[in-house]
Amino acid sequence: MPAIPLRGKLTLVLLLFSAALPAAQNAFNPEISLILSGQYAHYRQDPDRYRIAGLPLADEAGLLPAGLSLAESELVISANADDRFYGRFTGAIAPEGGLAVEEAFVQTLDLPAGLTLQAGRFYSELGYQNSRHAHQWDFVDQPLAYRAFLGNQYGDDGLQLRWLAPTETFLELGAEVFRGAAYPSAGASRGGAGTRVLFVTGGGDIDVSQSWKAGLSLFDSRAEQRLSDGGNLRFSGDVRQWTLYGVWKWAPRGNPYERNLIVQGAFMQNRERGSYGGSATGPIDARRQGAYLQAVYQFRHGWRTGLRLDALRVPDPGSALRGSPLDPAGHTPRRVSLMVDYAHSEFSRIRLQYNRDESGPRPDDQWTVQYTMSLGAHGAHRF
Fold this sequence. Notes:
mainly beta; 3 helices
């Protein structure tokens, strides 16, 4: 995401507030929240040398710093502009300073025929996890497939059109067009509309205690001189991906207060066809697969525990790239994660997580203690 200096950021926010102060009977009354997060991380291997065997690594997809560190703070401002438009701004304040715009979009409220149009910068509907912010994750980090194929999350400047079908069972279809400047895209090709996404989502109740949601998304993009691995790899070519996911939720009599169980999983297939330059040079046409399955169980009010399994399949890249960082050398990246967390309320959470990470040939034992606190008004999370 493009970052701008912290100087002037608070001034900008204050100007926005002052510009929106009541004039006559026009009042600006937004929801404002600030998410604070930090962690302590311990690794057996050097986190600066972290790699996923046979795959390029986006700059934002590495491991958390070892030891004590502050995570990005998230500022969220949202409100209805009027009876026809809603707007939301999400800014990530980096620990070292500077504000990156994660989201800044407007959304229609009254289009006919079940249609909703959204414009600006936002996270794509690529599977269940992509559009969820970090403080909503059930684990400290994203599944390996999201880290490997999407650089953790794909968000960009674009347009989204949704259609909610007039059916008893929830059914929604959507299409997105993005600039194509964010990983795994690059270069804003195709005249600044370099990425296209189609998605369909369905869901409903099984009975009073169970509900489900499932979806399929298709991603098509063109990358021009996309950088990864700290700028050592350059890729130009086509990137295509499809993602199939499912979520099942259980709570006794529909009341999740004391006990509930959430199971989710996804399968992704990613294809890159083009050529690499830099530390690995040559043509590539690779189909890679990734999957994860996780279960999170709340066994008493405030206390949860979770298990997540990750795996990737990375094929031989061909003779031109054999022996390069894009060669998995027969290794299958995989990971097992265990976590337990405690939430005193919906605004605070403390989490302990252990990963047995075999993303590369040398296994790593990873421990993280994380806190996440939400200050101010915050809208309800999606299913």
